[in-house]
Design a protein that fits this description.
Number of strands: 2
Radius of gyration: 24 Å
Structural class: mainly alpha
Number of helices: 2
Distance between the termini: 77 Å
Order of helices and strands: HEEH
Strand content: 5-15%
């Protein structure tokens, strides 16, 4: 039986794909299981209101939220 080098490369890529998918699934399920046993600790997106009436979010911002927040602040300064 003859196996050409192209088939060997495809076989190695398939094994690498299965390993990477397994890793992603393992991390995902581990996070879900951890969140089940977190004891009610959930991230809150509730907004706290300061005495001046401005809402301050208690959650962390990612890059897109930070850009939106900076844009909103510039708009408010221009008013």
């Amino acid at each position: 039986m003859y196996l050409d080098p192209g088939f060997g490369g495809m076989l190695v890529q398939g094994i690498a794909l299965l390993v990477s998918i397994g890793g992603v699934l393992l991390i995902t399920f581990r996070r879900k299981i951890r969140s089940l046993f977190a004891g009610g600790k959930q991230s809150s997106n509730t907004a706290n209101t300061s005495p001046s009436g401005e809402a301050h979010s208690t959650n962390t911002l990612d890059d897109n939220d930070m850009v939106d927040t900076l844009a909103d602040n510039k708009r408010q300064e221009g008013e």
